[in-house]
Design brief:
This protein is mainly beta. Helices cover about 10% and strands about 35% of the residues. The strands form seven sheets. A six-stranded antiparallel beta sheet has the order 1-2-27-26-25-24, covered by helices on one side. The chain has a four-stranded antiparallel beta sheet with strand order 3-30-29-28, with no helix packed on it. It starts with a helix and ends with a helix.
Length: about 475
């Protein structure tokens, strides 16, 4: 308890950090990186958060629950009477298959996940899950969702770590990790077409490696511009450009030849971000490249259009902040949903809280309301597609929210589907679902469970549409 109280004290909103502007030349010239560009962040809370998680994972390992390595399931398991495969609580989500961590070549736990669609010929879509694990990254063909095929694994660049993150650009996977001296691995995903044979899970090697960072907590890629934003780098070292833990910006337009562009650390440590070409209602910034950064105790908006003149537009704290972790924009760029990873632990409200933000004025975002789940669980990563938000809420599993009326506030949001990938855990703790990927054309959603591995799920979109229609009709009557 003393440890938890001490960490909670560290996570109180700090005094507003002054906006600090950093400018650097870039392009096909040597980039001088001095001062703040090289520095580690002066004050940040992620080490305390990581120690909490490491303690939870160590206890789980000691109990023999991490990883579980249950037998993989290659068959359709519908959600019937609130249960799938006889063990997974669910609603409006069917399980197409489950692949264990060991069957993907790992001896450790799972973490992040992303997806890639190969289009080798016109009209052909081959869907792949790119699965983060403590000791590497697995590539699984999930085109036939009831018969997933493990193609191989890319081992970690240096050491194992519970933190690994992946994004995709131009048919290449870009992989970072909290492992010491890991840097960024780059893997040509078209190599998966080769389907290597042989015993066991095939081990791939990276096609390129970016070594201007050591550890990195997350990677953000704007596919419209070809820039990657490495965030949460903290360990200084020879040649490392830590950027005060903020945005370490890399030009990846030539995927196998990444080049350092610039730093922005004006608001210190960035845990995660989303960077887009902005098309929302704030006409001052139409067609600008804008990053929405989740900076431990704020939502911070940064204009990165001109890499030689990166500008902070706003930094906004909020009530009952514990740890501003991650979030995602609605497709209209008018609203965002933010997840605070530690509020369920350190405030009196234990139900999962999803914070609704009005970002129609980029210089003055506003936290307008909060949606409270029925479940008591820590939230982690969320993504939005169309009018649905896909939330990976640790012990509560994947929860899908109808956000069609988000403009009217959190009271108008409704949960329309869920699938609990961690039926053994029903606590406010760091177990269960780490993240999901809901962007396949097939409509299938992939989820990575820390203890179990890869789940391929199919939402019952027809039933979800019926629920949305019923709710709209009821609302119109009033």
């Amino acid at each position: 308890m003393k440890l938890l109280l001490a960490v909670a004290a560290l996570l109180v909103v700090s005094e507003a950090r002054p906006p600090v502007h950093h400018s650097f030349h870039h392009g096909n010239v040597t980039v001088e990186c001095v001062g703040k560009c090289l520095d580690a962040p002066e004050a940040y809370h992620m080490p305390q958060v990581m120690r909490l998680k490491e303690k939870a994972f160590a206890e789980c390992h000691a109990e023999g629950k991490c990883p579980l390595n249950l037998p993989s399931i290659k068959q359709f398991s519908p959600c019937t009477d609130g249960m799938s495969a006889g063990q997974y609580p669910c609603s409006n989500l069917d399980m197409m298959s489950y692949t264990s961590l060991s069957d993907m070549g790992s001896t450790g736990d799972g973490n992040d996940i992303w997806g890639w669609t190969d289009k080798p010929a016109q009209g052909v879509n081959i869907e792949y899950a790119i699965v983060g694990m403590a000791d590497g990254t697995a590539f699984v063909d999930v085109t036939n969702p009831t018969e997933p095929i493990v193609i191989g694994m890319l081992p970690t660049q240096t050491f194992s770590s519970m933190w690994r993150d992946i994004k995709v650009y131009k048919d290449h996977a870009f992989i970072v990790s909290e492992a010491v001296d890991h840097g960024m691995q780059i893997f040509d995903l078209k190599r998966l077409r080769e389907r290597p044979s042989g015993p066991g899970v095939h081990r791939f090697t990276a096609d390129a490696h970016y070594a201007m960072v050591g550890n990195t907590h997350n990677i953000v890629i704007n596919e419209e511009t070809g820039y990657a934003y490495l965030v949460g780098s903290t360990r200084s070292g020879s040649g490392y450009r830590v950027c005060s833990g903020g945005l370490h910006i890399v030009d990846i337009r030539e995927p196998l030849s990444p080049t350092f562009s610039t730093c922005y650390g004006g608001d210190g440590y960035t845990h995660d971000a989303q960077c887009v070409i902005y098309h929302g209602p704030d006409v001052r910034y139409h067609d600008h490249e804008i990053c929405f950064a989740y900076n431990e105790n704020t939502l911070t908006v940064v204009d990165v259009t001109n890499k030689e003149n990166v500008v902070m537009l706003s930094r906004t704290p909020y009530v009952d902040v514990s740890y501003s972790h991650q979030g995602w924009l609605t497709e209209s760029h008018e609203f965002a949903i933010l997840n605070d990873e530690l509020d369920e632990m350190y405030t009196s409200e234990k139900r999962t809280r999803s914070l609704i933000w009005d970002v129609r004025d980029l210089e003055s975002p506003k936290h307008t309301s909060s949606f409270l789940s029925t479940e008591k669980s820590v939230d982690h990563n969320l993504y939005i597609r169309d009018n649905l938000a896909y939330e990976a809420n640790y012990c509560a599993g994947l929860r899908i929210l109808d956000i069609a009326d988000i403009e009217e506030g959190a009271s108008e949001l409704r949960e329309v589907a869920y699938f609990d990938v961690a039926p053994d855990w029903n606590t406010v703790s760091f177990h269960g679902s780490w993240s999901s990927y809901p962007y396949f054309a097939s409509g299938n959603v992939i989820v990575n469970s820390i203890e179990r591995g890869l789940f391929v799920l199919k939402p019952n979109y027809e039933r979800i549409a019926e629920l949305q229609k019923e709710r709209m009709e009821k609302k119109n009557k009033h």
